[in-house]
Amino acid sequence: MISNWPRSLVGFYEAADLFYCSRLVTAMKRIIVPIFCEEGSFAGSAANQENRKLNVLFQMHGLKNTFAFTLHDADLKQYIFAFSGGCPMPTREQAMALLYGSMEDGPLETLTRREIECLRRCLIP
Prior knowledge:
This protein is of the alpha+beta class. It is built from five helices and three strands; from the N terminus they run ααβαββαα. It has a three-stranded antiparallel beta sheet with strand order 1-2-3, sandwiched between helices. The chain is globular, with a radius of gyration of 15 Å. The model has no long low-confidence stretch (mean pLDDT 81).
């Protein structure tokens, strides 16, 4: 998993092993179009302590809503791209920009640590 989540959140999420049964992944297995989930998209479907703690951690870090879609590479390896924050569902134009922007080979130049931090602050209001 590659993310800009705080290390503590990544550690808890990996230890809880909820990815395979999360609401987000379950929904993405049923449809091929991008989806938008509100609150608790990375938690599993069971009502247990890990899910409750995970939801609290996501809320604490401002990761309330998630817009996600799948893409695959030349070897047909599938990837999930998920953008989380406090923003409402993206407009059709914003969704297309996120989708097509994610298909690019990558930036021509790398960002500095400061530029990355500024982007994080802009994306999570």
